[in-house]
Amino acid sequence: MSEECIENPERIKIGTDLINIRNKMNLKELIHPNEDENSTLLILNQKIDIPRPLFYKIWKLHDLKVCADGAANRLYDYLDDNETLRIKYLPNYIIGDLDSLSEKVYKYYRKNKVTIIKQTTQYSTDFTKCVNLISLHFNSPEFRSLISNKDNLQSNHGIELEKGIHTLYNTMTESLVFSKVTPISLLALGGIGGRFDQTVHSITQLYTLSENANYFKLCYMTPTDLIFLIKKNGTLIEYDPQFRNTCIGNCGLLPIGEATLVKETRGLKWDVKNWPTSVVTGRVSSSNRFVGDDCCFIDTKDDIILNVEIFVDKLIDFL
Fold first, then answer.
1. 80-130: per-residue pLDDT in tens?
2. Which pLDDT band, with edges at 50, 70 and 90, does 20 fall under?
3. Is the whole-model pTM more than 0.90?
4. Most buried residue, 20, 150, 242, 310, by most Cβ within 10 Å?
């Protein structure tokens, strides 16, 4: 079949009755989790660069807050020297090899009873340590009992120093039925920008979690974008029209994992059919945008990354 590219008007109605929809997602729920899901705000070790009212709102919307090692410094600094704010916005966990965590910040959060877990292994990243921890927190009563036991406080909460989190996680997954696990909405601040190798690693985690722990719904939030994975074989992205009009700008379909075929899109300014896309060839749908009234349909042969431009100064009015 020949490829097509269609330029649409700025607003079109998308009929979904004849579309083969395998997956559904709501755009706003990437930031404002559904109440039926578990949710985590993960702060990675980059400057927190979103408006404070928005940060405070996002914090309140998530069940669990986790700092990856030196990200605790970022949170501490973001709240300036306002002790009232610092004590109000204490993370549930800090985890990593703790090489980036300043002594002052370590002592502050330890004094305020934040659970700090040291994991020295260099064969996994702080991101992976965080993800294993988050899964244990929601899915392992044994882990929660271990953490809550005050007798373990002086011994790294009873967790082996090198790779205890991974050992506990691997043991848990032996009996975990993924299809019965409550989904975990995971919004990550940071991870994109800064060192390029770390950015690439962050992108790989979208694929890794989709393959190995698909109960996670991971999205990265930057001052300019939401970045997440679109599953292959038909995904319907829903949104409120006013949310789209006010908070959303351009978007890009990014075949970062591998070259693939966009079988069909409906609801983009430039819809395509049977359209090969590849980073190597330069055929990438960038600077596109949503024009569907309340949804957009994307059907690809393989999983693909979607970035959506956001206007962070407007988001808080919709959360």
1. 888 999 999 999 999 999 999 999 999 999 999 999 999 999 999 999 999
2. confident
3. yes
4. 310
Is the separation of the CB atoms in 95 and 120 below 8 Å? no
At residue 304, what is the residue type? I
Phi, psi of 240 (to 5 degrees): -75, 135
Q: To which residue do tokens 């967790």 refer?
A: 159
Please, what is the angle between helix 141-148 and helix 164-173, to 10°?
A: 150
Q: What are phi and psi of 72, to 5 degrees?
A: -65, -35
| Angstrom distance (rounded) from CA 99 to CA 76 | 16
Q: Could you give all domains of the chain from N- to C-terminal order, each with its CATH number?
A: 4-22+231-318 (2.60.120.320), 33-224 (3.40.50.10240)
First-last CA distance in the chain: 43
Give 31's Cβ-side CA count (13 Å radius): 25
> DSSP string spanning the chain?
---EEEEPPSSB----TTS---EEEESGGGTS--TTSEEEEEE-SS---S-HHHHHHHHHH-SEEEEETTHHHHHHHHTTT-HHHHHHS--SEEEE--SSS-HHHHHHHHHTT-EEEE---SSS-HHHHHHHHHHHHHH-HHHHHHHH-GGGGGGGGG--TTTHHHHHHHHHHTT--GGGSPPEEEEEES-SSSSHHHHHHHHHHHHHHHHH-TTEEEEEE-SSEEEEEEPSS-EEEE--HHHHHHHEEEEEEE--SS-EEEEEEESBSEEEEEEEEBTTTTB-EEEEEB-BSSEEEEEESS-EEEEEEE-HHHHGGG-
User: CA 165 from chain center: how many Å?
Assistant: 20
Give the relative orientation of helices 141-148 and 126-139 as an angle to the nearest 10 degrees: 100
